[in-house]
Predict the structure.
Amino acid sequence: MWAGTFTPPWDWRKGARSGPEGQIGVSAAPAPPAASLGTYANKGNISRGGERIYHLPGTRDYARTQISPKAGERMFCSEDEAGAAGWRAPRG
């Protein structure tokens, strides 16, 4: 069971995945470019349970997260700005 290849967690979070032959490769979906200062690249959405969660470029749910300003969702310039506004990072 433990004889297979292992992808360290820090590589997994960066998108490196073990291929069929055990070789590490990059996932099919490339990460969006990092946000530069002064741009609104961090997405703040509200979960079904009413929790305010922000997503950073390159994270797991960033690409599929849709923002609806009518529902109170918004964009942030930085992680600090999102936290100061009462939004939290995603769990997991």
